[in-house]
Amino acid sequence: MKTLSETWFADGYIDFELKKYTLLAYLQKISANFDRNRLYPDLADLIFHYNNLQLFKKNKELLKEQFPKKLTGIQIEKLQLIYEQMIEDDEIMQELEDIIRYSSRKMKDTIKTGTEIFDIVENNMEIFPIGIVPLENREGYFLLVNGNSRNVRGYYYQLGIIERHDEKYKSIKTEFISEWMKSIVYTYEHIKSELIKMKKEIPNPAVYGIESKLSFPVEETTLPVAKRSLVRHISVN
Nearest to residue 46, comparing CAs of 32, 59, 27? Predict the structure, then answer.
């Protein structure tokens, strides 16, 4: 897939038509994946680039602590230098502002499409405890079923906290454990008992079932949405 550099809008020759072509080629690939209900990693990457544009537009000094962690110090210094060189040239600065304005609008439209798909997936997903959930539920397992499939995919999860400025975000790390075929023998409770035997250092784990009523690409859509939904479910409950 054609990707964008973190500073694509200010790299090289600042020309509206050139940057427009670069952006539309990038968005075309993403839209093609969205048409196939493949959300990730495209949606996260697109949101990252959209936020970059907003921060560049709002923060004239591009303070390091205000810019996304994904950017390195060298990249931030580069953007600061670009800004310093351009601020004296009204024509180039206007061209850059036109690029940012146009790109922001086009990205926002594509993000809207992606988030609508995300909402459909999430609204057709059910999360429920398997057995009694212990008070300590920052790590455990979830069992994922996609659509009408009888396959049950088991994952180990661990919640964490990412701190940035005055904000805190819950993160989740996951590890695929195994896959089972759900049957009279392999019930959720039976699979839970097998998981406990596999990882004896967690004798009383939290285990959740996550069922998607509709079938979507697992790695690109069902799993990422399930992870985010589980974080929200645990936080609320």
Answer: 27
* Pairwise CA distance, residues 196 & 11, whole Å: 52
For the chain, the maximum distance between any two Cα atoms, rounded to a whole number of angstroms, is: 73
Q: Averaged over 169-196, what is the pLDDT? A: 90
Domain extent listing, the chain: 8-122, 124-236
The tens digit of pLDDT for each residue in 111-133 reads 999 999 999 999 999 999 999 99
Predicted local confidence at residue 45, as pLDDT: 95
Is the whole model's pTM more than 0.70, yes or no? yes
3-state secondary structure 139-162: EEEEEEEECCCCEEEEEEEEEEEE
Quick one: how many helices (H) and strands (E) in the chain? 6, 5
C-alpha to C-alpha distances, 12 to 7, 36, 154, nearest whole angstrom: 10, 33, 47
Q: What is the dihedral of CA 31, 36, 40, 44, to 10 degrees?
A: 30
The Cα–Cα gap between 140 and 155 comes to 8
